[in-house]
TrEMBL record:
Residues 10-63 form the Insertion element IS150 protein InsJ-like helix-turn-helix domain. Keywords: Coiled coil. InterPro entries: InsJ-like_HTH, Trp_repressor/repl_initiator, WH-like_DNA-bd_sf. This is Insertion element IS150 protein InsJ-like helix-turn-helix domain-containing protein. The keyword Cytoplasm does not apply. Residues 72-99 form a coiled coil. It comes from Limosilactobacillus reuteri (strain DSM 20016). Gene3D superfamilies: Winged helix-like DNA-binding domain superfamily/Winged helix DNA-binding domain. One of its GO terms (molecular function) is sequence-specific DNA binding.
């Protein structure tokens, strides 16, 4: 059976029912029409988190709130910012060099090919 989309409330209900039925994954698959992998994954997350229901939330694409950042998270964010600034600065320098090179080429071309007035 293929999986289907579920929301947090439904996942929580499924896990609670799964536990009441002695963690019978096949029962949950048949009753809720979801895949075995989904039920198994949700239950594993639930157990690893110490039975915290928040572990069943879909947090893909959502950043951790800054007030919950660890020192490592702050340093990683600062590192990303500094790398981006450095890359921007390197691009600006490369652009300025290329612009100077093009202008010098145009000046040399103009000065070397002027027609004489004779």
């Amino acid at each position: 059976m293929s999986g289907r989309k579920t929301d947090f409330e439904e996942r929580l209900t499924i896990i609670e029912e799964l536990i009441k039925h002695d963690v019978n994954y096949n029962w949950a698959v048949e009753k809720y029409h979801i895949s075995y992998q989904q039920v198994y994954g949700w239950y594993q997350k639930y157990r690893k988190s110490g039975n915290d229901p928040e572990s069943l939330r879909d947090r893909r694409g959502k950043a951790k709130p800054e007030e919950k950042w660890l020192e490592v998270d702050r340093l990683k964010a600062e590192n990303r910012l500094l790398r981006a600034q450095l890359e921007k600065q390197e691009m600006e320098i490369a652009f300025a060099k290329k612009l100077t090179e093009i202008r010098n080429r145009e000046v040399e071309k103009d000065s070397g090919t002027k027609p004489s007035k004779n």
